[in-house]
Amino acid sequence: MWKEKAIKFGLMSSASVSVISVALIFLFLFKEGGDFLSSPGIGSLFDTRWTPVSFVNERFGLYPLIAGSLLVTFLATAIAIPFGVLGAVYIAEIAKPREREILKPFIEILAGIPSVVIGFFGLIILAPFVKNVFGLYSGLNALSGALLLALMAIPTIITISEDAIKSCPKSYRQASLAMGASRLQTLWRVVMPASLSGIIAAIALGMGRVIGETMVVLMITGNAPQITASPLESVRTMTATIAAEMGEVAFGSEHYQALFIVGIVLLLFTFALNIFSRLFYRRYGNRS
Amino acid sequence: MNDTKQLSTKQQSVLEPQVSVKDLSVFYGEMQALYDIILDIPTKRVTALIGPSGCGKSTFLRCLNRMNDIIEGAHVTGEILIDGEDIYHPNADVVALRRKVGMVFQKSNPFPKSIFDNIAYGPRIHGQKNQGILSETVERSLQRAGLWNEVKDRLQKSALELSGGQQQRLCIARALAVDPKVLLMDEPASALDPRSTAHIEDLIDKLRKDFTIVIVTHNMQQAARVSSRTAFFYEGRLIEVGRTKELFTNPSIKQTEDYITGRFG
């Protein structure tokens, strides 16, 4: 009897690790950053400038960092969606088995490339290319970052969308084909709508990967904390800010606390993304 | 085998067949699933295909609207004429064929869409955009399938909320919405409870006035109840075909007799 209890306890604690970790991460982010909210106060986060190491005027406005993250994330997602979803359609529906055998491993390899290597590639090849194409002073901007991040999001979107498309029951396709629909009509009018929830979830997960990615944006986006909607400007994301500044900040200082606040905001964004994809999944997910 | 072939040919005498099958053989890769089938299917009658599992009756059915095309490695020889046109001719129009020859599957397979959108699917893919005409078609098709009164107040609800029997009638209505001439049914009631089965059989009885129906069934009582002609398949060959009453009461071949009396299968 005790043995069974021990096993049950062991399994339960394994399952609880992630729950406890999330709770602890939240707790410690607040513990380290929470003091900032009383002094210098929450209002200073709504500044339009992030100049934490200025001698005359330290400012901790989050707007430029949030704007940077959002710009890069939306650009990257916009670039990744067509490639990811159409790629998944091709692999799941059209590719011959031989083609699939070649494509799938390469997608997995792409997913497995360390981000620093992708960043390196971007620095040497992509940034100069972007610079020349648009005639800029520097190729280190939001567009370069977004292109690389799209590259990292595509495998996630392809893999999960492909699963969603493949899990669409064969009987739907048969019914459609037997009505005289072409393969394309069947794909567009039956298979895609039936797989939509999975495809949305795939996109949300791809976005989650993009918004949380650090190394590539640190290397390639130029790291200028400014509010802009132009893809050709340098921007700085929340992740890059934490990674770049945390190493040199004075322990316990306002700047130190502000970085934890940035961490909390980043976490809230990923949370929101998760909840969104879950809501969507629940609404369109029941098909049987 | 020559005997059977001649015999089934002799029994072919059908006036104005809608479907005329000549020397049909089907291969799945190396394996032969059907051998030289010769069969005429009369217009606006119900023809039942019976036989044990794996005898080729479903394969035969799927040849009639070329649904075997989507199976990898499937290969068909011989000739199938529907209204005098060879449906396996290289220039044959598969879309037009499937519009003319509707199909209902063993397991009801409504799309995860509203009831209305399910029925309107066929007309829409064939280019019908007029909302008024679509509404008319939906109502008429549901009426014909005997489902209208049960669903007229919830056409925008998901078709997946219907019961199993209602879903199957919805699939029949969906097939009817493109005005087919022939209706293929692959064990349409085998997954249903007895009441729903009775419903489907009543429906088939009504539909046979307007459609040529070919039904595959495992259930010999069902074949006897709904069909006017019955074809018995065994191991990929058409063993015997004739009027249902005669075939069930006085089969001329031993294998048929053994099967319908339950000695095998």
Mean pLDDT score of chain A? 91
Assembly state: heterodimer
* Count of discrete domains of chain A: 1
Here the CATH topology of chain A equals MetI-like fold
Show unreliable segments of chain A. Answer: none
Distance between the termini of chain B: 20 Å
Instruction: Describe the main β-sheet of chain B briefly.
Output: 6 strands, mixed
The helix/strand order of chain A is HEEHHHHHHHHH
Fourth-tier CATH superfamily name of chain B: P-loop containing nucleotide triphosphate hydrolases
Verbal overview:
The complex is a heterodimer of chains A (288) and B (265). In chain A, a hairpin with a 7-residue loop joins β1 and β2 (59-60). A two-stranded antiparallel ribbon of chain A has the order 1-2. Chain A has a single domain (63-250, 263-285), classed as MetI-like (MetI-like fold). By secondary structure, chain A is mainly alpha-helical. Chain A contains ten helices and two strands, in the order αββααααααααα. The model of chain A has no long low-confidence stretch (mean pLDDT 91). Chain A is globular, with a radius of gyration of 23 Å. With 265 residues, chain B is an alpha/beta fold. In chain B, β4 and β5 form a beta hairpin. In chain B, the strands form two sheets. Chain B has a six-stranded mixed beta sheet, sandwiched between helices. A four-stranded antiparallel beta sheet of chain B has the order 2-1-4-5. In chain B, α4 (115-125) packs parallel to α7 (164-176) and α5 (131-144) crosses α7. Chain B has a single domain (2-109, 180-260), classed as Rossmann fold (3-Layer(aba) Sandwich). Classes of the chains: A mainly alpha (288), B alpha/beta (265). Chains A and B meet through α6 and α7 of A and α3, α4 and α7 of B.
